[in-house]
Structures are given as structure tokens and as C-alpha cells.
Write a structure and sequence with these properties.
By secondary structure, this protein is mainly alpha-helical. 60% of the residues lie in helices and 2% in strands. The chain has a two-stranded antiparallel ribbon. The longest helix is centred in the middle third of the chain and has 25 residues.
Length: 251
């Protein structure tokens, strides 16, 4: 039992709730984490410029585009699809031109700030092209992609986020825990999460909050966790990969 409730649903201060979360953490370590570790090792082996360019393109260790980026590009067809692909190429160029701002010992917040500057430069480039004429404007990568790019660069630099970033599905997972204080917050500490999260690196806790949010919802609703639910999550891993396509073939 915890000494005090941190703001999440009280079920996660019980043995049953802690056991349910532990199952999710162990499932993540078995199904998703090995591929993530390959990404980390891959980025640490790259030169700084190659790491910056690969992060801008959202490439993983097998050279495939991260599923977040793949979905962003592929959700539109034709001209918009090409424009989004061009946006990532421009983003990669901007990050490659920003390597003098990236150095060992830079915090994750610092890395993320460099990524935000590069993304803003993409937005400005798009505005210029739009006023130009025929060339399709490029788009600023969405916040989720900016976080992913920053994490890839942080892996290269050997730093980890110090807090859990509440981006997109992670914020949803945080609220599925019963937390009501996530609105408007960009990060939370591990101490604000239930016990099974507190021994994890924040970037792994962030991943779990996103991937297993429906598991948390079942626990809060007093529903049992069954094998089918985890099989469904694992099936999504096979279709989208641990964040990228064709994972089972590549990994």
C-alpha cells in the first residue's frame, strides 16, 4: 500500500490495482521494450548529424518510419500525403542545421526546445511557400512527432526525460488512471503515478500510459483483465509494430 494517494483512482492503492498495473508493465517489457531498446542503441551509434536527420524523418532502427509519422503522412492521400512527406524532409533539414545547439549533457527539455525551434522553422517555411505560388506548403509536424524526434535525439545524447510528458495518448492514459489534474499540464513526475510506474525511466512510463490506457479503464471500472485484451494490444503491435510497420519481420 502507498503512504498516500497521489491523485489517481484509489483502486491503484490496493493490491488488486497494483497487480493489474504490474501485469501491464510486464507485458510492455516483453512485447514492446526490446524494439525500443534497439532504437536507443541505433541512435547512440549514429553521428550527431545523422541522428538529427533521422530523428527529423522519424526513422527507427530498421530504417522504417515510426508509426506515428507513418499515420500522419498516410492519413491523407495525393497532394496532402506528398506535402506531409515533404514536411518531414524539411524538418530533418532543419534539425540537421541545428546540431551546434545539441551537446552531451543537454537536458531533455533543452533537446525538446531545439526540436520545437526546428518545427517552427518548418512552419515559417510553409508560410513562405504558400505565399509564393505553385509549390505546396509544408506543415509543422504535430506535437506527438516533435516529442518522438526529441526522444530519438536524447537517446543519441545519452539523456532521458526527467519527467513523463503528457502528449496525446499519454495524457489520455493519465486520465484513465482517474487523474483529473492532467488538463493543461505538459509533464508529471513519476511520484504522481502509481507504484508500478515509479521504478521505470519516465520515457517508458510515458509509453505504457499511452499503450495500456484501456487496461487502466477496466481496472477503474472494476472489470477483470483477460487474455483477449492483451492479445488485442499485441496484435496491434504486429500490425503497427512497436511504433513502426512490419515490426515482426524486422525485429
Amino acid at each position: 500500500m502507498h503512504e498516500q494517494n497521489r491523485g489517481y483512482n484509489k483502486i491503484f492503492d490496493t493490491d488488486a490495482g497494483i497487480a493489474g498495473l504490474t501485469v501491464a508493465v510486464e507485458h510492455y517489457a516483453r512485447v514492446f521494450l526490446p524494439c525500443e531498446k534497439k532504437d536507443c542503441k541505433h541512435y547512440r551509434a549514429l553521428t550527431l548529424e545523422d541522428a538529427a536527420r533521422s530523428a527529423g524523418l522519424l526513422l527507427r532502427h530498421d530504417g522504417q518510419r515510426h508509426a506515428h509519422a507513418e499515420s500522419w503522412v498516410e492519413e491523407d492521400q495525393g497532394r496532402d500525403r506528398d506535402r506531409r512527406a515533404a514536411s518531414l524532409a524539411t524538418f530533418a533539414d532543419e534539425l540537421a542545421d541545428s546540431t551546434e545547439k545539441l551537446y552531451k549533457g543537454l537536458s531533455f527539455h533543452g533537446v525538446h526546445a531545439v526540436v520545437e525551434e526546428a518545427a517552427e522553422a518548418v512552419r515559417k517555411a510553409g508560410a513562405v511557400r504558400k505565399t509564393g505560388a505553385r509549390k505546396a506548403s509544408v506543415l509543422k509536424p504535430m506535437p506527438l512527432l516533435r516529442y518522438d524526434a526529441a526522444l530519438m535525439l536524447a537517446w543519441h545524447l545519452g539523456v532521458d526525460p526527467e519527467e513523463v510528458w503528457l502528449r496525446s495518448g499519454t495524457d489520455s492514459g493519465f486520465r484513465y488512471l482517474g487523474c483529473r489534474s492532467g488538463h493543461g499540464k505538459k509533464t508529471v513526475t513519476l511520484g504522481e503515478l502509481p507504484k508500478p510506474f515509479q521504478q521505470l525511466p519516465p520515457w517508458q512510463a510515458e509509453d505504457i500510459l499511452c499503450i495500456y490506457r484501456r487496461v487502466f479503464g477496466r481496472l477503474v471500472g472494476g472489470k477483470p483483465l483477460d487474455k483477449a485484451l492483451f492479445d488485442k494490444i499485441a496484435d496491434k503491435r504486429q500490425r503497427l509494430g512497436c511504433g513502426h510497420r512490419r515490426c515482426t519481420a524486422a525485429c
